[in-house]
Amino acid sequence: SSGINAEYGGAYVRIVLEKIPCQFAEYFDPRYPVIVGGLMNNEENLGLVQVRIKKHRWHKKILKSQDPLIFSLGWRRFQSVVVYSVLDLNNRNRMIKYTP
Question: pTM for the whole thing?
Answer without folding.
Answer: 0.47
